[in-house]
Amino acid sequence: MLRKFFLFATLPLIAACSSAHNEKKITDTDSTAVAAVEAKIEAPSPAYLIIPGKSIGNTRLNENLDSVMDKLGRPDKSDAAMGSSFHTWFAKHDTADYQTDIFAHHNYDGKHDDISYVKVIRVTSPAFKTAENLHTGLAIQDIARHFKLNHVATYTRGADSLKVYYDRQAGISFEIDNTGKCTGITVHQAGDSTMTYLSLYPDRKRVDIKK
């Protein structure tokens, strides 16, 4: 709490200095000060940490789906076909609240054909954060400072559109709404191109991207 108070208390001072010296370029000293403030941001607890290409909170990629359900409980919505399945959990079981989505499928490798493995994890709650303190609600510009984003899909519903950007090599995707804000974060295997064709929005129409 003290850290947050210190940060908010210094904002007016920083703004005043900026106004008085609006022609001043950013110096090494300024950059060091900004880095020092950012370093004070506490990392999220493991239960809310987003690790690109690996996990979100306590749910890991390639984890047995049965194990996930033991932890999260019975999903509020499920859909399955051809060895793949999609499951949704709503906070407080309220469809208007934040949600967690998991896409899973069987490997059919002849060894564990009966096991469905987690391949994609998506969250909409801002409580989940990356080590860089990135979470839903932030602007795409904030996210682009830390990841190499590529626009891979656009999904529409009436006049509303949702754009999906992903960093394939990192294994993370971000959905951006009409205002330029992030509304969902997805983790998938690093180097996997699944997000270029997988739709997590059954109520929306996919629009091809013009190259």
From TrEMBL:
Which top-level group of life is the source organism from?
A: Bacteria
Name of the protein this chain belongs to = Lipoprotein
